[in-house]
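Incident log, structure service

09:12 report received: a user says their structure output differs between two submissions of the same chain.
09:20 pulled the input from the user's history:
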Amino acid sequence: MAKHVISLSLVLALCFVAWSAKPQALSARPQANNLIPRYTGQSLIRPENYREWIFLSSGLGMNYTPSANGNEMFTNVFVPQWSYRQFLATGKWPDKSIFIVEERQSETNGSINKTGHFQTEFVGIGVEVKDETRFPEKWAYFNFGADTKTAGANPKAACWQCHEDHAAVEHTFVQFYPTLKEVAKKFGTYRTAAENAAP
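09:34 re-ran on a clean worker, output below:
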């Protein structure tokens, strides 16, 4: 009798584990959490809750041309967890990956801070999308102001060509993401030439 009770308890425990694991497995799927690109007509719908995603890196006053306008903004880069995990496993970005580049103003003198810079007002976001079924060039780029809800893709010459020419991994500037550089190098997907200064 005791053996039957133990066996029944084990079966019930396994059933409970399987039942409780099912929602967790579903929640890991990008579709379940709206972590893939969504569109209305030809426009991308602004991604939501991106600050709950994986933080890749931050820059201050970065500019791809020598002339600076003196307005040093912070840029914070985020990707969904599911995309990040697949990159760690393969060194490549899966289809339907989304990158958010958040822009914020910077200040240096505030509260007790006397040197250095800290982040302040939100300005807007740039969004990079890998969507192989929607875009012939696979990658597309969008800009959202502080209150913009949808945006059309930028012209190919605006962002696509720069990423094509200078990105270290596919169309992404992994050369500026220190936690991912070694991952890409391990899988042989890192383009070292991207570290060279543009002529």
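09:41 both user submissions now match this output. Likely a transient worker issue. Closing.
09:42 reviewer note: The longest helix spans residues 2-28. The mean pLDDT is 83.
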